[in-house]
Specification:
The chain contains seven helices and 21 strands. The chain is an alpha+beta fold. The chain has three domains: 182 residues, HUPs (Rossmann fold); 58 residues, SH3 type barrels (Roll); 83 residues, Beta Barrel (Elongation Factor Tu (Ef-tu), domain 3). The strands form three sheets. Strands 5, 6, 13, 14, 15, 16, 17, 18, 19, 20 and 21 form an eleven-stranded antiparallel β-sheet that branches. Strand 11 and strand 12 form a beta hairpin. It is found in: Cytoplasm. Its main location: cytoplasm. Keywords: ATP-binding, Cytoplasm, Disulfide bond, Nucleotide-binding, RNA-binding, Transferase, tRNA processing, tRNA-binding.
């Protein structure tokens, strides 16, 4: 196959590319430049899209003896990831920019260009596996549960899966990948993993959002609507947050209160007891299937609402073009804007963006 290897500059993508070359494929490496302004993406070992990363990717490509290019996707990244991130926070939701990047950049914009240029697939260093099932190609969890990235790949469609290549999915551990990189003489063998949001240079998400969205003082209210404190900007709060609340009125029971809801239109933050974070139902209209769609209108599955949370047994159904999920045991602290990924065993069925949540504790309580 002709394979376009997306090389981030990290050890995972370098080893994935090496394996593609070793398997006899015709491989070309590409690094995505996601910012035109220096310093707007995280620098140093914590990054994933920096100048240093581009240089690391080039050195790896040179060591493997493959052609290498840097493609400017900065405009598309700004529109589809950064602008979306800002818009979601403005709407009081909690987005996942890595999910959007996979959906809009790596497996949409990049894959589209790769196919136009005659490549058969895009190769990445994601930890996930592809399995040929009865209904076609399926996306499954990786062998290494600690590194499994199937959650952030849940946005991929059947058409996209048909043109992807994940060489690391069956690798039992990240340490084996690092050891392999050392054996291959790749200089990124011991490079630290990237963390946090790449387009927020100093990691200060609250400050970055204040600059982009604006900070305006507002009220913190309890579930009955009574004012119990104030804030300097609703965008700085997420569902489930306890620290940083400026509460002037203590709870009647003396227990801590948590953020239950962010209302951007009224610039209000709603707080309440921890028990109210328990969520017994979630729903969303923006959904997709990673392969063949479920044939039954209602089905049992496991649902994961964060990249590193445990999947929860649940019942899901589709009605009026909306996916609704009821977990066997309540989710904890779900925020609109998060992504719910549905699994059947190790297989990813699909995903939806959470629009609505229902608390286990009625407002009257």
């Amino acid at each position: 196959m002709r394979i376009l290897a997306a090389m981030s500059g990290g050890v995972d993508s370098a080893v994935a590319t090496a394996r593609a070359v070793e398997a006899g494929h015709d491989v070309v490496g590409v690094h995505l430049a996601l910012s035109r302004a220096g310093g707007t993406l995280r620098a140093g070992s914590r990054g994933c899209c920096t100048i240093e990363d581009a240089m690391d990717a080039r050195r790896a490509a040179d060591a493997l003896g493959i052609p290498f290019y840097v493609w400017d996707f900065s405009e598309r990244f700004r529109e589809d990831v950064i602008d979306d991130f800002i818009a979601e926070y403005r709407a009081g939701r909690t987005p996942n920019p890595c999910m959007r990047c996979n959906e809009k950049i790596k497996f949409a914009a990049l894959l589209e260009r790769a196919l136009e240029l005659g490549f058969d697939a895009v190769c990445t260093g994601h930890y996930a596996t592809l399995v040929e099932g009865e209904g076609g190609l399926e996306l499954h969890r990786a062998s290494d549960a600690a590194k499994d990235q199937s959650y952030v790949l849940g946005v991929l469609t059947a058409e996209q899966l048909a043109h992807t290549y994940f060489p690391l999915g069956d690798t039992p551990s990240k340490e084996l990948v690092r050891a392999e990189a050392e054996q291959r003489g790749l200089t990124v063998a011991r490079k630290p993993d990237s963390h946090d949001i790449c387009f927020i240079p100093d990691g200060d998400t609250r400050g970055w959002l204040a600059d982009k969205v604006g900070a305006e003082k507002g009220e913190i209210v309890d579930r009955a609507g009574d004012v119990v404190g104030s804030h300097d900007g609703a965008h700085a709060f997420t569902v489930g947050q306890r620290r940083g609340l400026q509460l002037g009125v203590p709870a009647a029971d003396g227990k801590p209160r948590f953020v239950l809801e962010v209302r951007p239109v009224s610039n209000t933050v709603v707080v309440g007891p921890k028990e109210a974070l328990a969520c017994v139902r979630i729903a969303g209209a923006r959904y997709s299937w990673a392969g063949a769609a479920p044939t039954a209108p209602a089905f049992d599955c496991h649902v994961q609402i964060r990249a590193h949370s445990d999947p929860v047994p649940a019942r899901a159904w589709i009605a009026d073009d909306i996916v609704t999920v009821e977990p066997e045991s309540p989710f904890d602290g779900v925020a609109p804007g998060q992504t719910a990924v549905l699994y059947e065993g190790t297989r990813v069925l699909g995903q939806f963006t959470i629009d609505r949540t229902e608390s286990a504790v009625p407002v009257e309580a």
